[in-house]
Design brief:
Layout (H helix, E strand, L loop, with lengths): L1 H10 L13 H4 L29 E7 L6 E7 L7 H11 L3 E6 L4 E2 L2 E2 L13 E5 L12 E12 L4 E10 L2 E10 L11 H17 L6 E4 L5 H18 L12 H12 L7 H19 L81 H6 L9
Parallel strand pairs: 2-10, 3-9, 3-10
Antiparallel strand pairs: 1-2, 4-5, 6-7, 7-8, 8-9
Family: Belongs to the protein-tyrosine phosphatase family. Non-receptor class subfamily.
Organism: Arthroderma benhamiae (strain ATCC MYA-4681 / CBS 112371) (Trichophyton mentagrophytes)
Protein name: Protein-tyrosine phosphatase 2
């Protein structure tokens, strides 16, 4: 389904087409990975002077409450690049509410590779971080600049996160920013055991800091689709479970996980990137449903924290639309030894094998490429499958 969306957008001559992508060199240079980009008509627009590029690889996400029709808002973003830090803080300043909440699901460096630039201060001895845009075409005084100051920081074991209170200053205006750096999600795995519990606690803690569901939590990993999509999907589905909506759904054949992930992918490509993340959502939802209903069951077997890949790096686990008959049932991924085992689209027609992701050009392959500031290298970077996020 997503492959068809990309193809339709590429073939359309209408810039207002839902699946259009801006392929200009200026925009491509701002992407961390060449194969992960925000839909042109579902992206955050930076507040910049007229004539300046307003692109940032970030997408506003809205998920509706099926009962009240209320809207729950997020922003899903790639991890900021070193040469675009001012853009990231521009987005936070203009798009977040009075109190901004940032959820960071990647470390800046994982397995020796940069996944995200260091965009915030973390040392009380050097508490202030300054940023500035550097466009050569902006008139004097029109560029976006400011500072971020670390007010305090602590480690919270219950959410396995470094929690920092920051002050964002732009001119004479200030904004409080709460930054949560989650330490429990490895680059090739899914959170298990205490890490899984901490992730669920993190969802609650960040929602409380945001105070209102209309104040979008800004969630990012590296590419901004895998771990980010999984976090947002689970947060939404667990909220529905807590309210009882999932258990009293009129359509018993509906697959809430499938529908939620598909809705996310309509707003940002590749959300919930691989089958392990997709399976993880079902596992957690089943576990939490059993707890809510007081059902005793055998514990869910944890997924391995590292998934072996063949030397050619081409392993892509299959994503399938799962049967709604059992909220915890899921198909196993294809044989990881198969060279042609590609990641398949979650958003496919149910009951069918679906379409394989288009692997002719850029492939989402676990952030294999280092994150250089060189624009040409960034255009060729590819997000990895299990890590991707």
């Amino acid at each position: 389904m997503e492959r068809h969306r990309r193809a339709a957008g590429a073939l359309s001559q209408d810039p207002s087409h839902k699946w259009t992508l801006d392929t200009s060199p200026q925009v491509k240079a701002r992407n961390r990975y060449g194969d992960v980009q925000a839909w042109e008509n579902c992206r955050v627009h930076l507040k910049v002077p007229a004539g300046e590029c307003d692109f940032i690889n970030a997408s506003p996400i809205v998920l509706k409450d099926p009962e009240t029709d209320g809207e729950y808002k997020y922003i899903a973003s790639q991890g900021p690049k070193r040469d675009r830090l001012a853009d990231f803080w521009n987005m936070i300043y203009h798009e977040a509410g009075e109190v901004a909440v940032l959820v960071m699901l990647t470390q800046t460096v994982e397995s020796g590779k940069e996944k995200c630039a260091q965009y915030f201060p973390q040392d009380m001895e050097n508490p202030t971080f300054e940023f500035s845009s550097h466009s050569t075409t902006e008139p004097p005084g029109a560029h976006f600049s400011g500072s971020v100051t670390l007010l305090n920081t602590t480690y919270d074991e219950s959410i396995r996160s470094n929690v920092s209170e920051l002050e964002l200053r732009v001119g004479s205006n200030t904004k409080t920013v709460w930054h949560f750096l989650f330490a429990g999600w490895s680059d090739y795995g899914t959170p298990e055991g205490p890490d899984r519990d901490a992730l669920l606690n993190l969802m609650t803690a960040t929602a409380e800091k945001a105070k209102s569901f209309s104040n979008p939590r800004i969630v990012h990993c590296s590419a901004g689709v895998g771990r980010t999509g999984t976090f947002i999907a689970l947060d939404h589905l667990l909220r529905q479970l807590k309210s009882g909506q999932l258990l009293k759904a009129d359509d018993k054949s509906a697959d809430a996980v499938f529908n939620t992930v598909n809705r996310l992918r309509e707003q940002r490509m590749l959300m919930v990137y691989n089958t392990f993340q997709y399976q993880f959502i079902y596992d957690v939802l089943k576990e939490q449903t059993q707890i809510k209903l007081g059902i005793q069951s055998a514990p869910i077997e944890p997924r391995p924290q590292k998934i072996a890949k063949p030397d050619d790096g081409m392993f892509k686990p299959e994503l399938v639309a799962l049967s709604p008959a059992d909220i915890g049932s899921a198909a196993e991924p294809d044989d990881p030894e198969s060279e042609n085992n590609e990641a398949k689209d979650v958003g496919r027609d149910k009951g069918s094998k679906g379409d394989k992701e288009n692997n002719d050009n850029h492939k989402a392959e676990d952030d294999d490429d280092d994150d250089d500031d060189d624009d040409d290298e960034d255009d060729n970077d590819e997000a990895e499958d299990e890590d991707e996020s």
